[in-house]
């Protein structure tokens, strides 16, 4: 190996070590803990969410095969029925009529046959005319090879699809044409091309350090053949987990598109989850159906610095098309940021975040995300604040609500941008570094301003979600930074010598593409005890944080608006609602 190549490899290793979002690959096995079950009576309520999706106990990770069938929403997910760490994974199965109240059914898929005896990993669902919904998933064989299998419902007349069959003619795809059999997983929802009569799907993989999405074609949904080239790949991105590929409308700003849409006025989205970094990125581009190639527009980076569905604790996402309301819905998993010991003691780990709709932004350069409208049915008591001017160093409490369990939507008006700090172009693709350098307590010109969530009254503990406005020296246009900072979120200090034994309290950040022509920018945060999901500028930038305060819990938590910039900022309008628990949340899950 040449010296230059050696340096490149070492640099990549360093980047991997510092960029993995603080989360180990969730396939790490803790043999002594993976079957250490917790009784329902012993599950700790501290930090458990009230209105987010989770089973009563134990570990969950990737959302799998979300779909709508005969009026019933289905969500499958990776689940350990025996413990609060990864292991013993089955496909848990829950159903809902409104995406809010969930009923747990028996696990749909679990290791039982030679083609999945060592694991039933992630996958997707496809509605196949004449066959109903078909699940494609990754099975792990006895020799740890990753292969792709299918499962079908036993009774298509049952809207709950309680029982699934894994036919003996599995697998449908094996890594026997040069693919990496230890990195070959997570098949996508398939789409149908009416012009040539073929179904197509993608499987995530890697070759050395290059991330790859292989494409496979089939006429009958059983015999699949790999295309000559991957639909797309990218160097130095590592394993592409949980790929997702779907169209979005360029002209319709209210409705989503089905996976198989092949009409005009559309772009395609390719999203991948990066195993090396534990975050995702996506590109927008053109899908050439004749050549079976996807080409990104090139407006944003195709790699680690690319656009993200969520710039925080968010991974292994999966979308589906809801044909009842003509919308594309996104599910995403948020892992815990505390320690394995903490998870084992409390008896649970992982949540699914509030489902979000996806549309193309009016600029055509990015997506926008918004919590599904159904979540508003859980809103209770409402408090408001209007035209509250905040001078530098001021904060005002949002009173009369339950701050640990709330939906808050605020619009700020920053007025003049004359005091905005000059933007340093060296941070153009480094929002997190900029956020760490200029946190919520560092005085600026325009900002920082925003929300202080899950706080003690004296800010001994708090999680700020905030904006800071810079100005591009060459164009004089604003550059808006959004941060969610968990560093001051908890007084808990872990004494483990290994970083993996200590609570992970990171800051997360992303830039927000707004012109501030009217001086206004909005922020909505869904706060639920140990999770803060924040949507900047109506969903242009989204950041999720997991936090574990020791004092700012339950009724002892507080919520504030604040401004630490020299430019006064006005809370033009603020609405906050207490959030109620769903009537059903997987009670009885095994």
From TrEMBL:
A GO molecular-function annotation: hydrolase activity, hydrolyzing O-glycosyl compounds
SMART domains listed in its UniProt record: Glyco_32 (SM00640)
Record domain Glycosyl hydrolase family 32 C-terminal: where: 374-578
Domain annotation Glycosyl hydrolase family 32 N-terminal: ranges: 52-371
Top-level taxonomic group: Eukaryota
One Pfam family of this chain: Glyco_hydro_32C
Keywords from the UniProt entry: Glycosidase, Hydrolase, Signal
Signal sequence range: 1-25
GO biological process terms held by the UniProt record: carbohydrate metabolic process
Membrane-crossing residue ranges in chain numbering: none
Keyword GTP-binding appears in the UniProt entry: no
Family according to the record: Belongs to the glycosyl hydrolase 32 family.
The name this protein goes by in its record: Concanavalin A-like lectin/glucanase domain superfamily
């Amino acid at each position: 190996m040449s010296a230059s190549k050696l340096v490149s490899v070492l640099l990549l290793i360093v980047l991997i070590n510092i960029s993995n979002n603080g989360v180990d690959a969730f396939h790490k096995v803790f043999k002594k803990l993976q079957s250490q079950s917790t009784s329902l009576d012993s599950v700790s309520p501290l930090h458990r969410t009230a209105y987010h999706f989770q089973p009563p106990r134990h570990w969950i990770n990737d959302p799998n095969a979300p779909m709508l069938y005969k009026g019933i929403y289905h969500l499958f997910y990776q689940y350990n029925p025996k413990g609060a760490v990864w292991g013993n994974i089955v496909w848990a199965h829950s159903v809902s009529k409104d995406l809010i109240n969930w009923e747990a059914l028996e696990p749909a898929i679990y290791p039982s046959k030679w083609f999945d005896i060592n694991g039933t990993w992630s996958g997707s669902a496809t509605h196949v005319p004449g066959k109903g919904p078909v699940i494609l998933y990754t099975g792990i064989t006895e020799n740890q090879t990753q292969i792709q299998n299918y499962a079908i419902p036993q009774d298509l007349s049952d809207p709950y699809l309680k029982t699934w069959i894994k036919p003996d003619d599995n697998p449908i795809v094996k890594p026997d044409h040069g693919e990496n059999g230890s990195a070959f997983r997570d098949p996508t929802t398939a789409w149908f091309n009416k012009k040539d009569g073929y179904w197509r799907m993608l499987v995530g993989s890697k070759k050395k350090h290059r991330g790859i999405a292989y494409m496979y074609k089939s006429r009958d949904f059983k015999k699949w053949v790999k295309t000559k080239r991957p639909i797309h790949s990218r160097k130095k991105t590592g394993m592409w987990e949980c790929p997702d590929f779907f169209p979005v409308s360029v002209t319709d700003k209210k409705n989503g598109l089905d996976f198989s849409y092949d009409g005009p006025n559309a772009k395609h989205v390719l999203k991948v989850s990066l195993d090396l970094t534990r975050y995702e990125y996506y590109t927008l581009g053109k899908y050439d159906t004749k050549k079976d190639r996807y080409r990104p527009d090139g407006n944003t980076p195709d790699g680690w610095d690319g656009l993200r569905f969520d710039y925080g604790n968010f991974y292994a996402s999966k979308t589906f098309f809801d044909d009842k309301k003509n919308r594309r819905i996104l599910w995403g998993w948020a892992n815990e940021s505390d320690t394995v010991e903490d998870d084992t003691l409390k008896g649970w780990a992982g949540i699914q975040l509030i489902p979000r709709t996806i549309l193309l932004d009016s600029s055509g350069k990015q997506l926008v995300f918004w919590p599904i409208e159904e979540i508003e049915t859980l809103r209770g008591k409402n408090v408001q604040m209007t035209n509250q001017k905040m001078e530098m160093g001021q904060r005002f409490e949002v009173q009369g609500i339950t701050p640990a369990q709330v939906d808050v939507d605020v619009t700020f008006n920053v007025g003049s941008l004359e005091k905005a700090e000059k933007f340093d172009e060296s941070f153009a693709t480094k929002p997190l570094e900029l956020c760490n350098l200029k946190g919520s307590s560092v005085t600026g010109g325009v900002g920082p301003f925003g929300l202080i969530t899950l706080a003690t009254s004296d800010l001994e503990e708090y999680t700020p979600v905030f904006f800071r406005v810079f100005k591009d020296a060459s164009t004089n246009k604003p550059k808006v930074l959004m941060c969610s900072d968990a560093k001051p979120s908890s007084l808990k200090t872990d004494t483990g010598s290994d970083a993996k034994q200590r609570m992970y309290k990171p800051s997360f950040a992303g830039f927000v593409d707004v012109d501030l022509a009217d001086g206004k920018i909005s922020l909505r945060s869904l706060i639920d005890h140990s999770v803060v999901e924040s949507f900047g500028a109506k969903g242009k930038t989204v950041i999720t944080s997991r936090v574990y305060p020791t004092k700012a819990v339950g009724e002892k938590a507080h919520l504030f608006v604040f401004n630490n910039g020299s430019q006064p900022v006005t809370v033009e309008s603020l609405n906050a609602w207490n959030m109620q628990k769903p009537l059903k949340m997987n009670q009885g899950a095994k």
